[in-house]
Amino acid sequence: MKHILLELQYLPPVQYFSRLASYPVVYLEQHEHYAKGSYRNRCHIAGVNGVQRLSIPLRKGKNQQQSIREVQISYDEHWPSHHWHAIRSAYGNSPYFVHYADALEPVLKKKKEFLWDLNLELLQLMMKLIGLKTELRLTESYQAEPDGILDFREKIHPKRPAPDPSFRPVSYPQVFEDRHGFLPNLSVLDLLFCAGPASGNVLKNSEVI
Fold this sequence. Notes:
This protein has helices spanning about 15-20, 80-90, 95-110, 115-130, 175-180, 190-195, 200-205, and strands at about 5, 25-30, 40-45, 50-55, 135-140, 150. By secondary structure, the chain is of the alpha/beta class. It has one domain.
């Protein structure tokens, strides 16, 4: 199959981007309902104490039953500053932080109203910085069993990852590798800040054909 279907995630893990690098066309599901406990509003980075979770707080309400396009971000806490501080603390000494930080920080701090809009802009930015030419398309309707397309929705999950024999994480130097060893499948931020221009090759080599 030349097309794959994914949900939109917040600064997704390397596995997600290995899919983007391997398919010429990627569909993003815009007609689903928000699902708690997923990568839709969280990501994992490597901090001094190991894996660190960053979560986007959402406005109170029945998010689980909301259309993903209607889920609103809460700014009761100054989470963009907290996330940026955590990212800077984790990767400030990485080889390529200075090359990409100025592009990422303003997007993260834009105070977008909707989770979907923030995630999409961040995804497009990460693809641009890595150099991925994948075509992104949005679904026109929800299909439980889409025809002629690889349905990979809910397969890349922090709590319930599905078996994925096509993904073989390739190691690259990480900031705190001397403390924790190599930590696979973190947010694409980890790959970008640590591997820089080599990120695309890491993604391609992580996909088993």
